[in-house]
Amino acid sequence: MNTDSNKYVFLYITILVLIVAVVLSLFSIKLQPLQKANTDIEKMYQILTAANYKNISKENVINQYEKLTTEIIINNDGNVVSVYYFKNNADEVRAFNLSVAEEYQKAFDGKTDYILPVFAVKNPDNSITNVIPVAGKGLWGPIWGYVAIASDGNTITGAIFDHKSETPGLGGEISTEKFASMFEGKMLFNNKGEYVAVKLVKGGILNSNIDPKHGVDAISGGTITSQGIEKMIHDCLKLYIPYINNKL
Amino acid sequence: MNIRKYLGPLNKNNPITVQVLGVCSALAVTAQMKPAVVMCLAVTVVCGISNLIISLIRKTIPNRIRIIVQLVIVASLVIIVDQFLQAYFYEISKMLSVFVGLIITNCIIMGRLEAFALANKPVPSLIDGLANGFGYGIVLIIVAFFRELLGSGTLWNYQIIPASFYEYGYLNNGLMTLPSMALIIIGIMIWIQRTKESELQEKQ
Fold this sequence. Notes:
The complex is a heterodimer.
Chain A: H1 6-50, H2 61-68, E1 69-75, E2 80-84, H3 100-108, E3 115-122, E4 128-137, E5 142-149, E6 156-163, H4 177-181, E7 199-201, E8 215-217, H5 223-238, H6 241-247
Parallel strand pairs in A: 7-8
Antiparallel strand pairs in A: 1-2, 1-3, 3-4, 4-5, 5-6
Helix pairs in contact in A: 1-2
Chain B: H1 23-28, H2 33-56, H3 66-88, H4 90-96, H5 98-101, H6 107-115, H7 122-152, E1 154-155, E2 158-159, H8 163-167, H9 179-196
Antiparallel strand pairs in B: 1-2
Helix pairs in contact in B: 2-3, 2-4, 2-6, 2-7, 3-4, 3-6, 6-7, 7-9
């Protein structure tokens, strides 16, 4: 058989690609539920970490999350649309499953039909921490995170950030605990009640004239990622101001 | 069958220390033992199975598109490994991130397909692939051993250097956690290997 004729080459590659496609789809379908479970656990872990429940073992995450968290969905006026907690109203739409990045995009495009999730986590002293998911752009790809706001609607009590493809050691440092811990105790509103959020200051907060309540050190070598974090926190949390004014 | 013939990659024909292939990923994933071992397994599996498949179909592959066919096979195997890691070893798959995907471009695998699998029977090809993957992995594990022990004081995330050492002023060498130190460890390994094996020394 002449394996170098054009006909043979085309036929060969077509059949090969078809076989490969079928095999890959089968694997993908089989493994998807397990992968989804992993990302769900990761999400619950990040929400609880932001709310200062640190170092929960992976096996315990689901239990702890179900016990401590109420999922709330709000609309653009800051009114509560739905409330979901575990083992109670299983039919309710879950804030957990909302695509946060899509809803934010709607809001930034000027639409008003967006809905936003809030994760209300119960503290050991029975007060409530509101964990708010944020999503934005880094240098190479998406960045996201969770910011925990105390019941005064002003103080940030914790945060956690993650990224898809920032440079390890530079922009990638945003996923470290060291970076996230700098946000603890920062304020969203200044003394006059104006919304300022948190700035990431190049050259360090100590060498600038920015109020230390509204700034943290930017990452050296990670300027664009730092700007991404600053913009993400500012723009996303801004959408929650009506809710904060209404409820907290 | 003479099995010794195929064990060259573990010593005198090692992909990393002798052929100097696959060094990029060897620098990147060796800060800790765990990702290094998983990477070793992943590359061994991909290299072995792709060698086997290519060898099985070697007589049907049109010569003009053989590189494309090899790439398709390797890429699909890598995707399967990646999906598998995401499902069963989520933490490690996050640690390895892009490097699993980059196995596709690892020259060791393409090199073995071109040099061995296209011209040999399936069983020898499988053994050759596994041996090369493992020869690569063993270097990774040795490098990771020193980097994790000296850089973090741990092995497989268990504390090895006792706390009392730190009280007397012992410090972890933070430099060891940076990729550049992997290059130095690989350099030392090449030095030792060449000193022992006279065949590897260039004649003046």
